[in-house]
Design a protein that fits this description.
mainly alpha
């Protein structure tokens, strides 16, 4: 589980670094397009060098992330994760079964109560609504 968190943290850092790198690269491309105009500012090598350094850092972080994911998915770690997760999954399955059983039986009781009430109404309603018979 700690390796998953470590991998996610490395992925987040890589994503942030990649965003910065892409912004810098977009700025460089924009400058290149602007240089078609003879009055535009020339390309600054320092910015290109900085973007290349950021791309190198991003590549290192990506390699680190891939290595971390590979270690996490190795057969031993995956087996350990399965062993750790099995009790929680079993507990959740047991709870779900108990919930479904309770819902089923309560539904059956509700259907029987409605059926009983409708039968009582069926036989009682005509007697309650009919006027009493007169005897003379």
């Amino acid at each position: 589980v700690a390796e998953v968190h470590q991998s996610l943290a490395a992925g987040t850092a890589m994503s942030e670094s990649l965003t910065i790198t892409l912004k810098a690269f977009d700025a460089v491309l924009k400058r290149i397009d602007e240089n078609k105009n003879p009055n535009a500012e020339p390309i600054r090598i320092a910015e290109v060098t900085r973007a290349a350094a950021q791309m190198e850092g991003t590549a290192k972080q990506l390699a680190e992330l891939v290595s971390s994911v590979d270690r996490m998915l190795s057969s031993q770690n995956l087996a350990n994760f399965s062993k750790q997760a099995a009790p929680a999954v079993d507990h959740a399955m047991t709870g779900a079964r108990e919930l479904m059983d309770a819902v089923f039986w309560r539904s059956i009781c509700l259907v029987l109560a409605v059926l009983g009430a409708s039968l009582i109404y069926r036989f009682a309603a005509p007697r309650l609504a009919a006027p009493p018979a007169r005897t003379s």
